[in-house]
Design goal:
single chain; 2 domains; 249 residues; alpha/beta; elongated; Rossmann fold
Length: 249
């Protein structure tokens, strides 16, 4: 069984989550606390494998708790009311979250993801290090976790030139890279995560970083010349949207 701690300042949310977790035989809730100070103490004393952590609480955020604990040798599923900035940072760092009020089906999926993955302590620490950097750092220093054969490679978003679809796989082209990185995820996953971060889908096969567009050549759809010299086709359907976005830069 996985020793689990619930951290939330709202009693209703704590009670609901506790009741839902009773349905999971592999989850053993060993503590339920309502503050960052009590959470820090419980984690140090009880050494859990999993923590459900509310992001916004009086007296400090869940992210501040992470800054107090080193190394982080447990997994976290964040719980939060909708917070676009925090959720984006969590997604960049390949971590998990649940929106309040917690949906039972989404909870099942989150527990299944937790139970099925390898609990590599170095990888866990890398994820949270990236998260804290994404939360506190400048946009140009934000990083996104890219899966590779060994785990995750955290890449600066500003260094990504473009993504190119290859069926259910994606090639990622980055600055100073001799060859693209093959990712076992569809391009749509990155379109969703990187929306509003200077990335735009200009073709069903291409998601590009506008900061790396050197030139646009007009045509039926036209094409872009990227900072690495590559030519990327713009589909006719995306042309008007693309030109409008370029004009606003």
């Amino acid at each position: 069984m996985y020793k689990t701690i619930i951290v939330d300042d709202e009693k209703g949310c704590r009670d609901t989550l506790e009741n839902l977790l009773k349905e999971f035989s592999q989850i053993n809730v060993v503590a339920i606390v309502d503050s960052i100070a009590l959470a820090e103490e419980a984690i140090k004393n009880l050494q859990p494998q999993l923590v459900f952590l509310d992001i916004e609480m009086p007296g400090g955020s869940g992210f501040e708790l992470l800054e107090k604990i080193s190394p982080i040798n447990f997994d976290i599923i964040f719980t939060t009311a909708y917070d676009q900035y925090a959720i984006k940072a969590i997604k960049y760092s390949a971590l998990d979250y649940l929106l309040k009020p917690v949906d039972p089906v989404e909870l099942i999926e989150a527990i299944n993801r937790f139970s099925s993955k390898k609990h590599d302590q170095d990888l866990i620490n890398d994820k949270f290090k990236a998260l804290l950097g994404n939360i506190s750092g400048e946009t140009t220093h934000q990083k996104i976790g890219i899966p590779d054969g060994e785990g995750l490679n955290f890449v600066k978003i500003s260094d990504i030139i473009r993504f190119q679809s290859d069926g259910s796989y994606t090639y990622m082209h980055t600055v100073n890279s001799q060859k693209p990185t093959l990712i076992s995820k569809p391009i749509g996953d990155y379109q969703e995560i990187l929306t509003n971060e200077s990335f735009i889908r200009i073709h069903r096969s291409h998601l590009i970083n506008l900061q790396h567009v050197d030139k646009y050549i007009k045509g039926e759809g036209g094409y872009t010349i990227m900072s690495d010299g590559s030519r990327v086709e713009v589909s006719r359907r995306k042309k008007a949207e693309f030109i409008e976005v370029l004009s606003s830069l």
